[in-house]
Amino acid sequence: MGPTARIDLSALGHNLQQARAFAPGSRVYAVIKANAYGHGMLRVAPFLAGADALAVARVDEAVQLRQAGIDRPLLVLEGFFDAAELDAAAHYRLEVAVMQSEQLEILRQRPLTRPVACWLKVDSGMHRLGFQPAAVAAAWQALRDNPMVAGGVGLMTHLASADDPDDPATPAQLSTFRQLCRQFEAPRSIANSAGIIGWPEARAEWIRPGIMLYGASSMLGQSGEQIGLRPVMTLQSRLIAVNHFPKGSPIGYGGSWVCPEDMPVGVVAAGYGDGYPRHAPSGTPLLLNGRRVPLIGRVSMDMLNVDLRSQPQARVGDPAILWGQGLPAEEIAARAGTIAYELFCGVTQRVRIEEINGQG
Ligand SMILES: *Cc1c(COP(=O)(O)O)cnc(C)c1O
After folding, report:
1. Domain 10-218 = CATH 3.50.50.60
2. Cα–Cα 20 to 30 A to 230, which of 50, 69, 120, 263?
């Protein structure tokens, strides 16, 4: 007995429509990197058919999609790293981000079977990847002059702090990028989910939603549910033991939680070996029989304990939801000092997957 990740395939299309509703004039790259944030890249791709294109982080991921027969426009957000990856990009008709001079050099030297489509990535202030604003004109010209680069080069940037609607870093990035773009005739792409949800000016010709497609919001203090998104993944398991302990009994490893009175304590079959965060503190909610009960004590590899004082009638076999339907992953993540992205990506191999609502 262990947890199941139930994947609601119909929620993907719904969430994509919500992303489009935020940015009705924009075309959409549906971001399915990191195995679609743990949801299964090949599983979800067909259910995001309403997107104009797909995006992944790495060439390997894109090649896997092509080899599975997925023939849609496909952007590699981190671009190619060496000549072999560039060859693969040309061979598999991948669009690539170009963010540094090493890539321009490889592009200049490498004879390709066909031109590749490129997005020039600009560092407008995140200081991770991208050409500095002052270097963009030369990079742009190098791409335009290169016969191995397909026409219609785009300009792309990424926002560092869009999850916080009050952070002045975002207007600063938007202004830097907007001023730069005036010099070029090019489609632009700026917004990830937080940009789409929180920053109308970031919507531009192409948007790049990721986490919101899976039903979570990346805005601080706001759940996906609150903005009309539906959770795709529900991690669920069962109660495998119900015990009664006297006041003063320590619960679990280290005895970090002690029963304040005589009380029933349940054991749920889910732990960090399944991807439930070990740092979730006592008090983190689970849904047992559809109602909240608090986690108590330390999370083990295969199990965790819950306080059953509010459900003394609970029995072995009762269903427990760890996150998903009715219990936002964002909330569990915040309790554990992380983000929903990491919870989703961290679901482990041994967790069974159950697909629902796959028939249109
Ligand atoms: C991952 C990623 C996205 C999607 O981000 P979300 O926050 O999941 O919406 C968009 N653009 C780039 C460059 C990314 O790396």
Report:
1. no
2. 69
The dihedral region occupied by 204, where left means phi > 0, alpha psi between -120 and 50, and beta the remainder, is left
Q: State the CATH architecture for 233-356.
A: Beta Barrel (2.40)
What are 7's strand-pairing partners? 233, 355
**For ligand 1, is residue 77 a contact (CB within 6 Å)?**
yes
Ligand 1 mean position, distance from CA 216 (Å): 13
Nearest atom within ligand 1 for CA of residue 211? 8
For residue 121, give the nearest of 93, 158, 81 by alpha carbon.
Answer: 158
Measured at the CA of 128, the angle between CA 125 and CA 131, to 5 degrees, comes to: 70
Q: Is 231 in the pocket of ligand 1 (CB under 6 A)?
A: no
Read off the pLDDT of residues 103-156 as tens digits, 9 standing for 90 and up. Answer: 999 999 999 999 999 999 999 999 999 999 999 999 999 999 999 999 899 999
Using a 6 Å cutoff on CB, does residue 192 contact ligand 1?
yes
Same fold, 10-218 and 233-356: no
Ligand 1 atom at minimum distance from 57 CA: 15
Ligand 1 neighbour 38 (Cβ under 6 A): no
Query: Of these residues, 37, 247, 253, 272, which one is catalytic?
Result: 253
Helices (H) and strands (E) in the chain, counts: 11, 18
**Is 276 one of the annotated active-site residues of the chain?**
no
214 is catalytic: no
Whether pTM exceeds 0.85? yes
Taking the centre of ligand 1 as the mean of its atom positions, its distance from the CA of residue 334, in whole angstroms, is: 20
CA angle in degrees (0–180, nearest 5) for 121-43-290: 105
Token readout for 104 is 């321009």
